[in-house]
């Protein structure tokens, strides 16, 4: 299971970071939290759409379904949350709504 998760992490780490920062946004929609929980439960669940006993397809289904689900969730985000998550994932510091006072 750990090998499967490490391979999957390499495939989705950029989208996972964006999703993480989108979840941390104060206006994150409830459906985003529910969808993320569903993806995590799918990954950790012993029940799989294609069993792991089938040599190649057992792992490939996770490498296809999870990235597609992440992309689908991210594509439905409101623009302000998507921009916030993109900026945070790229390493930019979050902008404060307060402007510094001029001296």
Automatic annotation (TrEMBL):
One GO cellular component assignment for this chain's record is: endomembrane system
| InterPro entries registered for this protein in UniProt | DUF1232
Asked if the Swiss-Prot or TrEMBL record annotates the protein with the keyword Transmembrane, the reply is: yes
Please state where this protein is localized: Endomembrane system
Principal place of residence: membrane
Q: How does it sit in the membrane?
A: Multi-pass membrane protein
Q: Which UniProt keywords apply?
A: Membrane, Transmembrane, Transmembrane helix
List residues of the DUF1232 domain.
34-67
Lineage: superkingdom = Bacteria
Protein's name in the database: DUF1232 domain-containing protein
Organism (species):
Hydrogenophaga pseudoflava (Pseudomonas carboxydoflava)
């Amino acid at each position: 299971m750990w090998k499967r998760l490490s391979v999957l992490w390499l495939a989705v780490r950029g989208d996972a970071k964006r999703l993480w920062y989108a979840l941390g946004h104060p206006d994150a929609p409830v459906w985003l939290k529910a969808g993320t929980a569903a993806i995590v439960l799918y990954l950790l669940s012993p029940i799989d759409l294609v069993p792991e006993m089938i040599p190649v397809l057992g792992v490939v289904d996770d490498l296809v379904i999870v990235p597609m689900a992440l992309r689908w969730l991210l594509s439905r985000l409101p623009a302000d949350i998507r921009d916030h998550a993109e900026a945070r994932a790229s390493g930019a510091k979050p902008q404060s709504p307060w402007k510094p006072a001029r001296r």
